[in-house]
Amino acid sequence: MGLLSNILFFPVTGPVAGIRWALAKVQTVVEEELTDDTSVKQELMELQLQLELGDIDDAEFVRREAALMQRLREVREWRERLGKGVSGGLVRVARDDDAAE
Amino acid sequence: MADSQATPVDVAGAGVAPDGGKYVYCIIRSDRQREFGAIGIGGGQRVYTVAFHDLAAVVSDTSIVIYDPTRENVLAHEFVNETVMKEHTVIPMAFGTVFRSEDDVTELLRSTYQAFSDVLEKMQDKIEFGLKVLWDREKVIANIERENDEIRRLKDEISRHTASSTYFARMQLGRLIDSALEEIGQRYVNDIHDQIKPVAVASRSNKPIGDRMILNAAFLVDRAQEQAFDERVKETSRKYEELLTFKYSGPWPPYNFVNIKLKLEKAD
Asked: Per-residue b/e over B212-242, b at no fewer than 16 CB within 10 Å?
């Protein structure tokens, strides 16, 4: 019955549900990208390794480092905006009785 | 709110006055107030201790900002820990940890007293070393092509166009080489681990950085074995002199071996 009703109503329930699902997925992926600092940190580590190995000079390092810092700041802003935890910055011992911020 | 402050890039060394915040570098055991000199982050701030019973947090005064993990800032943080480590067992704090006041720092020590004490006990006289091993991929491939019969034969056939289908033969060659690379890489990594493990207390592998790295490991070493560890790493690197580059660093505070969940939340 379930499958039949899906097929019978396919033009209506099929693609709409499909689109809704796809949009939700796109939103999740976009949100993940905006709030993920792992890849930026990975790039930072690669950059430092390049400096260490002598593949790049100081001037280039400083230039690219500044760009990565900017991206880290953007990720942090997005994380705060979307209510996700941020590391670093002003902290205090968590109080159990506090309501969630 | 921290975000309304000047960006940390401006703060570092630009003489912005601290406003009561405390940047925390590490936790140590200490029976009295300690001074570590003007080596703090943000332009050489005075580094000192905030105590609670026999524990102390090593801190410097700071304005309430979020510090960018620039090389300059990270080196300042590391240098403080390195200095403190010379005379103390150290539980390192994550980069950029700032508390609003001395009271908040004392609260941290009070609330996590037992866990800190236990870890300081466990980490007594233990230091961490980092070992990164890189290879020259082309060199390793050249070796593989020389020593692996199947691969060498296939390469010959391709160059002489005797393979019935060069396209597929090339794909096959690529696959064989990738697979050989993976196997050899794993063999090197296992051998290096086997050589070094006996002189270490513990080890941990992290994700390699970039595509030349085959090993990115941290080793926890007892101070009594520091010499033996050093010699073993040098021996191993000599063994692989032609093919592998060993990048060896430390001693570090035991970043990779301390596992305390600090119940911290963002403050405003």
From this structure: ebbbbbbbbbeeebbeebeebbeebbeeeee
Model confidence over B8-40: pLDDT tens digits? 443 444 445 667 899 999 999 998 899 999 999
Q: Are B236 and B196 in contact (CB under 8 A)?
A: yes
pLDDT digits (tens, 9 = 90+) for B46-72: 999 999 999 999 999 999 888 999 999
B66 contact A CB<8A = yes
Q: What is the pLDDT of residue B5?
A: 37
Q: Do residues B26 and B82 touch, judged by C-beta distance below 8 A?
A: no
Tell me if B97 and A88 make a contact (CB, 8 A cut-off): yes
Residue B3 in contact with partner chain A when CB distance is under 8 A: yes
Query: According to the 3-state scheme, what is the secondary structure of chain B?
Result: CHHHCCCHHHHCCCCCCCCCEEEEEEEEECCCCCEEEEEECCCCEEEEEEEECCEEEEEEEECCCCCCCCHHHHHHHHHHHHHHHCCCCCEECCCCEEECCHHHHHHHHHHCHHHHHHHHHHCCCEEEEEEEEEECHHHHHHHHHHHCHHHHHHHHHHHCCCCCCHHHHHHHHHHHHHHHHHHHHHHHHHHHHHHHHHHCCEEEECCCCCCCEEEEEEEEEEHHHHHHHHHHHHHHHHHCCCCEEEEEEEEECCCCCCCCCCCEEECC
CB contact under 8 A, A65 and B100: no
The answer to whether the CB of B59 falls within 8 A of the CB of B47 is yes
Rg over alpha carbons for chain A, rounded to the nearest Å, is 22
Mutation target for B interface from A49, A55, A91: give the one with most B CBs within 10 A: A91
Residue A88: which of B96, B99, B111 has the nearest Cβ? B96
For residue B5, list chain A residues with Cβ-Cβ distance below 8 A: none
Nearest CB among A65, A72, A91 relative to B71 is that of: A65
